[in-house]
Amino acid sequence: MSTSGQLRPKPVTGQTSGVVGLGGSPYDTWVPVPATLTLPEAGVYELDADVQGGVIMQGSVSNAIVQARLFNVTAGAVVPLTTRTLVLFAATPAVGVTHTLHGNASASALYQVAGPTTIRVEGLKHVDSGTTTGEVVSATNFRFKKISN
C-alpha cells in the first residue's frame, strides 16, 4: 500500500536475452535474434536492449557493418529510431591480416501500443567488398517497463 492508503498497480515488466550468428544469412538481410518480448497490454512502454555485434575480417574488406534494431512483429514494422550501428570498419586491412571487431550499443525507445504486441531484436551484416566471417548479434539484456496507459 502507498502512504495514501491506496494499492499501487502491479508493475508490468519483462526481460530476455538471445544471440544469433549471421554467417549463414545473406548480406543486407535483417535476421531475427531469439530475443522476443510480448508487451501484454495497451500502453506506453520503455523498451531497452543492450546489443552487441562482432565480425572477423581476413584480408581485403571495405565497409564492414553490423547493425541491430527493434522490430514490432505484430505490426510488421521497425520500432522508430532504434537502429544502431554496432561495428563499422571503413578501412581496407592488408592482405593476410585478420581483424576481429566488436561493438555495443543501447537501442531504446518510448513506444505506444494498442494491445498485446510482440517485439524482437534483429541483426544485419553488410560489406561493400570482400568477405567477412563470424558475424554475430546478441541482446544480453532486452527489457520493457510499462510507464503509462
Structure commentary:
The chain has 149 residues and is mostly beta strands. The protein is built from no helices and nine strands. The chain has strands spanning 13-21, 31-39, 43-58, 64-72, 77-78, 84-89, 98-113, 117-126, 132-148. Strands 2, 4, 5, 6 and 8 form a five-stranded antiparallel beta sheet that branches. The chain has a four-stranded antiparallel beta sheet with strand order 1-9-3-7, with no helix packed on it. Strand 4 (64-72) and strand 5 form a beta hairpin. The radius of gyration is 18 Å and the shape is elongated. 30% of the residues are buried.
Key attributes of the depicted protein:
4-stranded antiparallel sheet; 149 residues; mainly beta; 5-stranded antiparallel sheet; single chain; 63% strand; elongated
Characterize this entry briefly.
With 149 residues, this protein is an all-beta fold.
Number of E-type strands:
9
Give the strand content.
Answer: over 45%
Radius of gyration: 18 Å
Measured as a percent range, the helix fraction is under 10%
Termini Cα gap: 21 Å
Q: What is the helix tally?
A: 0
Q: On the 0-100 scale, what is the average pLDDT? A: 90
Low-confidence stretches: none
* H and E order: EEEEEEEEE
Note the main sheet: 5 strands, antiparallel
Structural class: mainly beta
Overall body shape: elongated
Q: What topology does this entry show?
A:
Layout: E1 13-21, E2 31-39, E3 43-58, E4 64-72, E5 77-78, E6 84-89, E7 98-113, E8 117-126, E9 132-148
Antiparallel strand pairs: 1-9, 2-8, 3-7, 3-9, 4-5, 4-6, 4-8
